[in-house]
Amino acid sequence: MLHEPSKIPQATTKRLPLYYRFLQNFANAGQKRISSQELSEAMKIDSATIRRDFSHLGALGKKGYGYDVQDLLAFFRKTLDQDEATNVALIGVGNLGSAFLKYNFQRNHNTKIVLAFDSNSPLEGEKISEIDTFHPDRIEEKIEEYGIELVILTVPSRSAQEVTDRLAKTNIKGILNFTPVRISVPDHIRVQTIDLSVELQTLIYQIKQH
């Protein structure tokens, strides 16, 4: 029987959207049940890791049966709030920011970029990749107007903390930080930092160990 997790390891948390995506693929193919080994082969994740993750979630499965695909999908949908869209703002429409706007997340996820800010945009706003884009001077006003919960930060490093301090005065709940700066936020805001240079160096190190 699945139960809602109170607290699960961060590594497990990061894999939840991947489980959901792959389970959707199996469901779309008409599969009713699945084993940890089948998921392991599809996702290239060790089956013991999958079983441990699922045990954290209360998904114990049945020996000789595996896991019920629809039950797992329903659980992950609830856990990841897939039935409720999250409005996202992007701050910094440079090369990386532009790529986010062109992709937008609504195609595959429950999140949608509905607002953007860039220093080259006018105060009255403009459309970039069909997204309303304003000058950063209007951050506080527009974050509230659009009901933004999550911000993607792709500004230059020198501006990261200054922009974050302004965001801290709004009602946002999280920041996905793509700057190399370790930004400081109040307790009510969660931060996930993705430093592309660190990720690349980590990958290079791993390659050289083989």
UniProtKB/TrEMBL annotation:
Localization terms from the record: Cytoplasm
Binding site for NAD(+): G92, V93, G94, N95, L96, G97
SMART domains, sorted: CoA_binding
Keywords: Cytoplasm, DNA-binding, NAD, Repressor, Transcription, Transcription regulation
Leader sequence segment: none
Gene Ontology molecular function terms on file: DNA binding; DNA-binding transcription factor activity
SUPFAM superfamilies: NAD(P)-binding Rossmann-fold domains, Winged helix' DNA-binding domain
GO cellular component, one term: cytoplasm
UniProt record, GO biological process: negative regulation of DNA-templated transcription; response to redox state
Positions of the DNA-binding region: 18-57
Domain of life, source organism: Bacteria
NCBIfam families, A to Z: PRK05472.1-3, PRK05472.1-5, PRK05472.2-3, PRK05472.2-4, PRK05472.2-5
Subunit structure: Homodimer.
UniProt similarity note: Belongs to the transcriptional regulatory Rex family.
Known role: Modulates transcription in response to changes in cellular NADH/NAD(+) redox state.
Name by which UniProt lists this protein: Redox-sensing transcriptional repressor Rex
UniProt gene name: rex
